[in-house]
Amino acid sequence: MKNAARPHLASSGSDERGLGQSAVRTVDLTGSHRHLRAALAALSTVAESFGRGARRTLPFLLRQRLRLKMGEPAIGNPRETASAESGPSYMVLLSEPGGNAWASLTLNGRCLARVLEGSLGNSQVSEGASLGATLTLAQRVLIAKIAQRLGQDLVEAVRKETRLELVVSGGKAIGGEDEDEGEMAEGLYVELSLEGEGDPASIILCISAEALDEAVRESDEPDVVRGDPRIAEALGDVEVPLVAELGRLSLGLRRVMGLQVGQILRLPTLVENPVPLTIGGVRKFQVAPVTSRGQLAVQIVSRHGS
């Protein structure tokens, strides 16, 4: 896995530049964005895992001698990347049931053209393959089916690398007069380019920065080391001293030195009063002295302090 050396943050000046140019500025990793370095590295790992799944979902990549080349993970809005274009594209949305984590997968127009060509059995890459201003109904149905499978590949990659549990929650076409232009949320994103002949085709993965950063922090915490279950079983045979204390008294040293056999020492407790029972030196119960089968015994009356 290659860590991103210079992640970028999208600037707000993209309206004048247009979507065909990259509108990014350098992120100072020594400042407030430094803590996201681990999340950006995790995104690279997710992208690599997704790429392996995508090659199985898109078998035509091998026939057309295309390979997925990963770009640098970045921070910002994927719509402001150089590969974004005004033509039709398709986005798959992922969400976390009961949580705030989200992710998205976007196929740009050139990628959609390649997917359609490959799915229809074309073994060669057409130079400058592109789509019209809008997707036809047949194109939408086929692309939606393939994009959903790619979305599931992303779900598996995110679960494997970050333990985040996402599900595919929808998909939509973007671009064209009658299609949803949509808003792409800012987050951490990485671009996978289909390298080959012709114009660049890209799949852009984007994920919530906060959710990915939190997942990385949790995965860095050491796992609790569980002991050998045989030790737990052996602990059941360890002997623990139980002491029933009938009473205590204090005597002066002169009297202690004068004690004789047969003398009676009166304890400060009454016969009917309960006495403490300590386990391992810790007072746990109140007990009453009784006899059992001719032996002095104690009967538990209550828990200490209750």
What would your notes on this structure say?
The protein has 306 residues and is α+β, with helices and mostly antiparallel strands. The chain folds into 2 domains: 8-220, 3-Layer(aba) Sandwich (Chemotaxis protein chec); 239-303, Surface presentation of antigens (SPOA) (Roll). The protein is 29% helix and 25% strand. The chain has helices spanning 14-17, 37-57, 60-63, 109-119, 137-162, 209-220, 229-235, 253-257, and strands spanning 8-10, 24-26, 67-70, 74-76, 89-95, 102-107, 167-174, 187-195, 201-207, 242-244, 275-279, 282-292, 295-303. The strands form 3 sheets. Strands 3, 4, 5, 6, 7, 8 and 9 form a 7-stranded antiparallel sheet that branches. It has a 4-stranded antiparallel sheet with strand order 10-11-12-13, with no helix packed on it. The protein has a two-stranded antiparallel ribbon with strand order 1-2. It is rod-shaped and about 110 Å long. The protein starts with 7 loop residues before the first strand and ends with a strand. Mean pLDDT is 77; it is low at 1-32.
